[in-house]
Design brief:
Oligomer: single chain
Helix content: under 10%
Number of domains: 1
Distance between the termini: 35 Å
Order of helices and strands: EEEHEEEEEE
Low-confidence stretches: none
Number of helices: 1
Strand content: over 45%
Structural class: mainly beta
């Protein structure tokens, strides 16, 4: 199983089959643009700090892959972690993060 969530205001943590962190340190403007997360099962998530004007990480589903189990929502700045949390079933092989300017092709 793998969990993906934001930590403080500048890190995205990965715990489980995929383990590590993505540094999102930068200007407030850069952090608020978000990060696209791509997983080996085909899941695409968008993670962004400042969900609903709160000091909380939002993790939004873009496309569901076969191993994504659920995303627990966070609406409390005092929660631990102060982040939505994506839960994956066992079997993820890798994850990539795309930071900076990205947008869908129309």
């Amino acid at each position: 199983m793998t969990k993906v969530y934001g930590a403080s205001d500048d890190l995205i943590e990965f715990d489980g089959d995929v383990h590590g962190e993505v540094d999102c340190y930068g200007t407030d403007d850069e952090r608020h643009k978000g990060v696209l997360l791509v997983f080996s099962d085909g899941t695409l998530l968008a993670a962004k700090y400042g969900k609903d004007e709160l000091a909380v990480w939002g993790v939004r589903l873009v496309r569901k892959g076969k191993l994504l189990d659920r995303i627990d929502q966070c609406v409390d700045e005092d929660a631990a972690p102060h982040s939505d949390v994506a839960h994956f079933k066992p079997g993820l092989n890798w994850a990539y993060a795309a930071k900076g300017e990205w947008e869908p092709v129309k």
